[in-house]
UniProtKB/TrEMBL annotation:
<dbReference type="InterPro" id="IPR036237">
    <property type="entry name" value="Xyl_isomerase-like_sf"/>
</dbReference>
<keyword id="KW-0413">Isomerase</keyword>
<feature type="active site" description="Proton donor/acceptor">
    <location>
        <position position="141"/>
    </location>
</feature>
<dbReference type="InterPro" id="IPR026040">
    <property type="entry name" value="HyI-like"/>
</dbReference>
<dbReference type="InterPro" id="IPR013022">
    <property type="entry name" value="Xyl_isomerase-like_TIM-brl"/>
</dbReference>
<keyword id="KW-0670">Pyruvate</keyword>
<dbReference type="GO" id="GO:0008903">
    <property type="term" value="F:hydroxypyruvate isomerase activity"/>
</dbReference>
<dbReference type="InterPro" id="IPR050417">
    <property type="entry name" value="Sugar_Epim/Isomerase"/>
</dbReference>
<protein>
    <submittedName>
        <fullName>Hydroxypyruvate isomerase</fullName>
    </submittedName>
</protein>
<feature type="domain" description="Xylose isomerase-like TIM barrel">
    <location>
        <begin position="20"/>
        <end position="252"/>
    </location>
</feature>
<comment type="similarity">
    <text>Belongs to the hyi family.</text>
</comment>
<dbReference type="Pfam" id="PF01261">
    <property type="entry name" value="AP_endonuc_2"/>
</dbReference>
<dbReference type="GO" id="GO:0046487">
    <property type="term" value="P:glyoxylate metabolic process"/>
</dbReference>
<feature type="active site" description="Proton donor/acceptor">
    <location>
        <position position="238"/>
    </location>
</feature>
């Protein structure tokens, strides 16, 4: 496995055009981009190539000042907004080579949950057809209710229910250890539940979302168990550094010593 940097979380204090260089200087080979929509898609592709970086994952667009602040996939009546957002995400994938798109489900407060699920199913059916054509994998990520109240799903089992209903290799779980811990879940149990359907993994330290402390919350055991759960790819660093990203990377030394990351 390899660590990848989330550009916004680790380097959000820097201007956009400096984040790629900073990630490369800190030794990252891959990056996640939360919202790569400030510039045309080709701009991001050029920036990645200039610094020898792999685009690991990006999110579908959101609008902070609208009902789409957390996406549209599960928001009833927002099919047009979802399709427009997904097309923008596809354009970024084409320009950057990013194969994983996190499909943002949305803030569903005030909506009937069954109607939200129907909207989610309809929008994902459309998105999966596009993913098959574009060779993409779509990610569904539960977000904890403390940080993201109202999000459509907050437990892995809720996202798994959607994923298994489609039974498509184009739809996978984005497993974030931080969100599981914030929900009070046992990581070993959740990994066993999600075996074989994890498409990307992220981590941060709880409760304040700084660098992970592998001695807490069963994090070291969870990362160690990932290969047995069918996952052996990128580990997304999605946290707020206490000082600088470079100074905080010593948290991962035990993973290197055990040969879990390269």
């Amino acid at each position: 496995m390899q660590l990848n940097a989330n550009l916004e979380w680790l380097y959000g204090h820097l201007p956009l055009d400096q984040r790629f260089a900073a990630a490369a200087a800190d030794g990252f080979a891959g990056v996640e981009m939360l919202q790569p929509y400030e510039q045309p898609p080709a701009w991001y592709g050029d920036a990645l190539r200039a610094h020898g970086l792999t685009a690991v994952l990006h999110n579908t667009p959101v609008r902070p000042d609208s009902p789409g602040r957390l996406g549209w996939a599960a928001v009833p009546g927002a099919q047009a907004e979802f399709r427009e957002a997904f097309d923008r995400a596809r354009a970024v994938a084409e320009a950057t080579g990013s194969r994983r798109i996190h499909v943002m489900a949305g803030d569903c407060r005030g909506h009937d949950r069954q109607a939200c699920r129907q909207a989610m199913d309809q929008n994902l059916a459309h998105a999966i057809r596009q993913a098959e054509a574009d060779d993409l994998v779509l990610m569904l990520e539960p977000l904890n209710r403390i940080d993201m109240p109202g999000y459509f799903y907050w437990l892995p089992e809720q996202a798994l229910d959607v994923i298994r209903a489609f039974d498509s290799p184009r739809l996978r779980l984005q497993f974030d250890l931080y969100h599981c811990v914030k929900e009070g879940l046992d990581l070993a149990d959740e990994l066993a539940r999600c075996r074989g359907v994890i498409g990307h993994v992220q981590l941060a330290g709880s409760p304040d979302r700084h660098e992970p402390d592998l001695a807490r919350d069963g994090l070291l055991a969870a990362v160690t168990a990932l290969p047995d759960a069918g996952y052996d790819s990128w580990l997304g660093c999605e946290y707020k550094p206490r000082s600088t990203a470079a100074e905080g990377l010593a948290w991962a030394d035990p993973l290197r010593q055990q040969g879990l990351i390269s």
